[in-house]
Amino acid sequence: MIIDAHSHVHDPVHDHVALLDEAGVDRAVLFGTRPHPERATDLASLKRELGVLHETVAGGSSQGGYETAWRELDAAVAAHPDRFIGFGKVDLDRPPEGIDADVQRIVERGFRGVGELTPRPGEAARVEPVLRAAADHGGLPVYVHGFAPTTAGDLATLARLARRYPRVPLVISQLGGLNWLTAIELARETPNLYLELSTANIIFAVRLAIHEVPERTLFGSDAPYGDPVLARATVERVTRPGAIRDQVLGGTLARLLNL
């Protein structure tokens, strides 16, 4: 089974399904989202959507946007339960009991994990209540945004937190962005830290990550920002046919999610 480990709700959803079909991808982890760059038709509209993205990854949120993203995610997963694996986001600005309620909401919907979390830069420690709640629910996987504005210090904080909750698979998205070397080093030292490989800046980073932690690297596209066809081709370019490639393209994630 080939699984895209990182994607966001598309508008319209059937365009996303067509991308998965083209890439030969069986299923995709799906996150809710406020920005929709795929809706953009020109530079001005793309800048508007990217403005929402920048606000989101900097830790900004609005309750209305949060609930809209949940509704879109619910609808997409309900329409294509055979293709999408729902992950629910948690509002890190809520008190611990509110975070517990968010994680309970994720479980009740039948979603398989938490993400993609976007703590403010320098505030990765705010993820800890989510990890605690995920551990209480049997070790739900948790994804955290890894590209800018996430810092190398944030990645180190996440690794420390992961070691406190060894039953929770903690996934760093986008291979840690510009801090990919730090992310690989931390993953080598942290048995429950996983690296999702989308939007890597250079192919050497993907090759090195798979070489160093082959059992904890995950093929992902970050669609619509990335493309499943190209993301799969990148993994296949740096691996040989066989067990390691199969793990990266979906075997490891299928095991984590009990698929």
UniProtKB/TrEMBL annotation:
One of its GO terms (molecular function) is hydrolase activity. GO terms for biological process: secondary metabolic process. Pfam families: Amidohydro_2. The keyword ATP-binding does not apply. Keywords: Lyase. One of its GO terms (cellular component) is cytoplasm. Residues 3-259 form the Amidohydrolase-related domain. This is Amidohydrolase family protein. It comes from Amycolatopsis iheyensis.
